[in-house]
Amino acid sequence: MLLALLVATVALSLLLGAVWGLFLPLPDRLKGNAMAFGGGALLSSLVIELYVPAMETSGTGAASAALLVGAVGFAVIDHWVDEVWGSSTGLGLLAAISLDGVPENLALGVDLIGASAREVSGLAAAIFLSNLPEAAGGARNMRAKGWRTRRVLGLWTGAALVLSGVTVAGNLFLDGASGQSLGLIRAFAAGAVVSSLVTELFPQAHRDGDDLTGVASAIGVICAAWLGG
Questions:
Q1: What is the pTM of this model?
Q2: How many domains does the chain have?
Q3: How far apart are the C-alpha atoms of 130 and 38, rounded to whole Å?
């Protein structure tokens, strides 16, 4: 039941964001600060829900190495996706969207193993808050490039299905893994998400927002810490 609820949350955040970007007002300042808030919340949640527990179960050195591998891995694959498919084709956009979300949703599925609803609520809320404005901005940019509404919604529906599947796979296929292995997976996912936040989300948030984007990120950090505390 909890897994189904979280899968629905992941999918809903992307679809609601796409609808927001296509049909509702989306001033750049609002989008930028919303993205900064969601990014700050996700960054805080990564440390509290993923990296710190990984250090406790797998050791500080191993967890740190796994985090760095995740960050490098994301950077390499992100560059490869841009070079091979580009950012304007449907396949390239779907790959880029999925690449940003895969480590988040894998971590969410793994975090559910042996955890209560309270223990995963902070990470789930942070993913929702970061997905919503990111999907809204992405859908708005696609519309500006001349994409039809049906095509935009179809792309974001595809991304929602892919990422929901990653959440389920992370939960079902890793259920029997040891605590040390799960810790390393959490740290790897955290590193990949940190890399995606710094290279993709925060620069876009600052370009679209204003001088308050740093404050919005700080508020996101505080909110995620309260939810995860």
A1: 0.86
A2: 1
A3: 4
